Prior knowledge:
Helix 4 packs across helix 6, helix 4 packs across helix 7 (114-131) and helix 5 packs across helix 6 (92-110). This protein is mainly α. It is 76% helix and 0% strand.
Amino acid sequence: xxxxxxxxxxPLALAFMGDAVFEQLCRERLMLTANMPAKKLHEMAVxxxxxxxxxxxxxxxxxxxxxxxxxxxxxxxxxxxxxxxAPKHSTVSEYRAATGLxxxxxxxxxxxxxxxxxxxFDIVWNAGEEQA
Length: 132
């Protein structure tokens, strides 16, 4: 799909796809890191796919100017979209930032930019490890 075609989807539709993409990347990374019981893998994955972690990832990407202009635009569209309701365990700003990140991953996936998605995932994963 072209970038132009992918931009025709709403930011929340992109986030819907991006949520699955980000979670799959997390699960794959955890599985390849260590062979452990599924319950433990799930607990570890939940810590990485939560709004708090994703919001800190957005902050890191923005502070270090690691996104192209187009990627930044997609992230901001997702972050600023209407209809975002934060769950009780995160703030509205965290949830909005996480939605922006998920929109970006959904966009990259639909455009077939899997290497770029993997690159950004590696960056936020490693940044999260440094902060832990």
